[in-house]
């Protein structure tokens, strides 16, 4: 099956570069790459035995399965440009890797008889050196039936875990990914700002919270969110939460809405706290 598929990557950057390296390592023939960062595309192409080309249509003409790993806003325009240049063909596989967009972004390829799909790894990728992150990652698949079979097999081949995603639920699915990945980074930045205001040295601010974050992730690997929750809300410590709120009001009031909103979510997870403590926490977090 591997030998019957030739893979092309349009947009061989962060996600595309990682996928190209992973597929090549799994024994697939990656034959053509294109990227705005032409030097990095050429280096990757040389590494995996592919060719680097300037025009996306050249990738489409060279491969039987093409991944569009461009930014979301470019997927439909690039697909349309290739269609206008008669680069797509009947029976060809055309796939994008956006978490937010459905197969409608590939309508111009489908219009000439190509089979289209979505292949979205639930993982942060940053080029070929991060290809190993795909091992154990979940991959959302939405595709024409025969292509879906191929994409599931490819996910397994790179050590990932495929699952089917209903296109009607894509927006909520992608929201979950953004909140857990991107917003965790944003929360980490908030924590660093709090440490800065607390007078913690710069070199400590940047690293001190990482073990705490790793510990939380490790707990979630073994337990449900309710079981993994620790801290003052989990133990019903309204006095500590009151001190947090007072400190934020005095020194960083812009973070208070975030603290309260996430506190209410944490309170909904807390199970073993007395009712009077729960009521006190509710009053503090609702500012009433």
Question: How would you concisely characterize the structure shown here?
Answer:
By secondary structure, the protein is α/β, with parallel strands linked by helices.
Could you give the topology of this structure?
Layout: E1 6-10, H1 14-25, E2 29-34, H2 38-48, E3 51-52, H3 56-62, E4 65-68, H4 72-84, E5 93-96, H5 107-110, E6 115-121, E7 138-143, H6 145-157, E8 161-164, H7 170-197, H8 202-208, H9 210-222, H10 225-228, H11 238-251, H12 256-269, H13 275-285
Parallel strand pairs: 1-2, 1-4, 2-3, 4-5, 5-6, 7-8
Antiparallel strand pairs: 6-7
Helix pairs in contact: 11-13, 12-13
Model description:
With 288 residues, the protein is an alpha/beta fold. It folds into 2 domains: 2-165, Rossmann fold (3-Layer(aba) Sandwich), CATH 3.40.50; 172-285, ProC-like, C-terminal domain (N-(1-d-carboxylethyl)-l-norvaline Dehydrogenase, domain 2), CATH 1.10.1040. The protein is built from 13 helices and 8 strands. It starts with 5 loop residues before the first strand and ends with a helix. This is NADP oxidoreductase coenzyme F420-dependent. Residues 5-121 form the Putative oxidoreductase/dehydrogenase Rossmann-like domain. InterPro entries: 6-PGluconate_DH-like_C_sf (IPR008927), DUF2520 (IPR018931), NAD(P)-bd_dom_sf (IPR036291), OxRdtase/DH_put_Rossmann_dom (IPR019665), TM1727-like_C_sf (IPR037108). Residues 138-264 form the DUF2520 domain.
